[in-house]
Q: What sequence folds into this?
């Protein structure tokens, strides 16, 4: 395939934030008398805030004060991210390599756009992306393809020319539904056989990603 654009998920892919989010949700839940285990948290990874809240309400029942819990979670997470979200291994080198190749880049995250932009700006990365799409800008979150289709549109790229980097099952399904190639870089959960079947590649980290892009999109990556 000829690569014309690259689209990144954010949490768990670019930023090592899923563990922080899990801890913030757990703390907020515990304050209201609920215990959030790993399996339930992982069922919400990659979903929009609305989708995640629905998962928790379905699990705990309508008596869960989800608005209060989510507000507390948001406060704890902001405190933890105040120094700036921790970057995943290989991210900066990958961005440098993609820029050397002249490939446009976008971020498509289930997180609200204003928060995506705030986090990117906090670590001086916002200007490095030609497009940002947040979960509050589409009618359907992942695993629907809407986020990635809008990101491709903002970059002026057709789905067939886009590579998506993702860590979550919902995100992989969304990229595949958008007709885009998807590379999985697992975070908290190893991809299931069904997710592996949708992926063009599964990598241990972003440090190996530029070689994959170069193999699809040209020869400059191998010399960068």
A:
């Amino acid at each position: 395939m000829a690569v014309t654009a690259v689209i990144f998920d954010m949490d768990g892919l670019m930023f090592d934030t899923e563990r922080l989010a899990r801890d913030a949700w757990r703390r907020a839940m515990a304050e209201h008398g609920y215990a959030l285990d790993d399996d339930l948290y992982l069922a919400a990874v990659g979903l929009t805030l609305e989708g995640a809240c629905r998962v928790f309400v379905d699990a705990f029942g309508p008596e869960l004060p989800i608005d209060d819990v989510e507000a507390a979670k948001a406060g704890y997470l902001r405190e933890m991210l105040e120094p700036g979200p921790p970057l995943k291994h290989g991210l900066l080198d990958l961005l440098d390599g993609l820029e050397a190749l002249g490939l446009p880049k976008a971020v498509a995250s289930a997180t609200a756009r204003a928060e995506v932009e705030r986090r990117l700006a906090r670590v001086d990365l916002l200007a490095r992306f030609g497009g940002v799409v947040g979960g509050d800008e589409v009618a359907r979150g992942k695993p629907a393809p809407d986020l990635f289709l809008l990101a491709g549109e903002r970059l002026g790229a057709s789905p067939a020319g886009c590579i998506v980097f993702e860590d979550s099952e919902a995100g992989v399904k969304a990229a595949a539904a958008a007709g885009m190639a998807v590379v999985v870089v697992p975070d908290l959960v190893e991809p299931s056989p069904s997710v592996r079947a949708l992926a063009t590649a599964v990598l241990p980290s972003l440090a190996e990603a530029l070689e994959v892009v170069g193999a699809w999109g040209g020869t400059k990556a191998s010399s960068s």
Summary: Confidence is low (pLDDT under 50) at residues 218-224. Residues 18-81 form one domain. DSSP finds eleven helices and six strands in the chain. The two ends are 20 Å apart (CA to CA).
